[in-house]
Amino acid sequence: MILNRKDVLGLEDLEAEEILSILDMSERFRAVFDRPVRGVPIMRGRTVVNLFHEPSTRTRISFELAEKRLSADIINFQAASSSLRKGETLRDTAENLQAMRIDMLVVRHASAGAAHYLARVLKCSVINAGDGAHEHPTQGLLDIMTMRQRLGDLRGKKVTIIGDIAHSRVARSNIWGLTKLGAEVTLCGPPTMVPGGIDRLGVTVEYDLRRAVAQADVLNVLRIQLERHESKSFPSNREYHKLFGITEDVVRGLKPEAFVMHPGPMNRDVEIASEVADGPRQVILDQVANGVAVRMALIYLLSGGDPGALAGGDAE
Ligand code: CP
């Protein structure tokens, strides 16, 4: 199985079959990830550059770990200490990287469309690790992988995404991916954080938290993206927590088998109570573990991976 495209920039661009293929391959890499010896030499001799122009813990380390486990040569580009600080453009930076014959670029940037722009300019593969409030495709894929592990086929399953929809690239990637796989997506949050007309993406909007929670098979709770708020969208953290925070009391309204997800980083006791973040209904660290497998699968598939490399179990 090979992903027949140069770049992965968003789940909007992917067909349902491609998403399912990536998820199936991610499960195979999850098995590699869980072995005592976790490396495979699939990317030996290939160079991947991680260009993170915005802060990140999970995504940056997860990509780096995935690349290491695939035996790639890795360059971590520190935007803050690079010539971008001297006024060099993103395009010039990227073309210089290309002149050094890199094979793949993983990019996170505060501007929506930055990854698409670089993909047009560069001959090498580009993976979007989050572009502004637009998309975060690998987070969408790892969220969907985590849901599929518990719910099986997602057709007809009810996914409620709660919180700061307006500023969330995670919400957008979840919406594209989940609706393509036939899930029923409900969005819930304060009216100031739910964009008008978003139902055109095939989702339902529910402003009543208790109703949104009661019908869900899974809750995906979003971080309030304070760094992207131009004006205050809610009076205080306390007020938000009272009205839309996922507390133990709210969780009691879930179906017995339903579970709680959060992409991280969490604002504890704002969008999610600590008791829920650490409680028995959450699968937050499973999401993180699945993230490494998803990124291994994506890099493998984009690089036209050798189909035999996994079958032989040639770990090193
Ligand atoms: N979920 C996520 O993108 O986290 P980071 O910002 O830490 O990468």
List keywords for this structure.
four-stranded parallel sheet, alpha/beta, 316 residues, globular, binds phosphoric acid mono(formamide)ester, 12 helices
Q: How would you describe the shape?
A: globular
If strands are numbered along the chain, what order do they take across the biggest sheet? Answer: 7-6-5-8-9
**Total beta strands:** 9
C-alpha end-to-end distance: 23 Å
SSE run: HEHEHEHEHEHEEHEHHEHHH
What level of helicity do the residues show? Answer: 25-40%
Arithmetic mean of pLDDT: 93
Oligomer: single chain
The biggest sheet amounts to: 5 strands, parallel
Q: Which band does the percent of strand residues land in?
A: 5-15%
Please state the structural category.
alpha/beta
Total helices: the number is 12
Q: What ligands does this structure carry?
A: phosphoric acid mono(formamide)ester
Radius of gyration from CA coordinates: 19 Å
Break the fold down into its secondary structure elements and pairings.
Blueprint: H1 16-33, E1 47-52, H2 58-69, E2 73-78, H3 90-99, E3 104-109, H4 114-121, E4 125-131, H5 137-151, E5 158-162, H6 169-180, E6 184-188, E7 204-205, H7 209-214, E8 218-221, H8 237-244, H9 248-251, E9 259-261, H10 274-277, H11 284-302, H12 308-311
Parallel strand pairs: 1-2, 1-3, 3-4, 5-6, 5-8, 6-7, 8-9
Helix pairs in contact: 1-5, 1-11, 2-11, 5-6, 5-11
The chain binds phosphoric acid mono(formamide)ester (CP).
Phosphoric acid mono(formamide)ester binds next to helix 2.
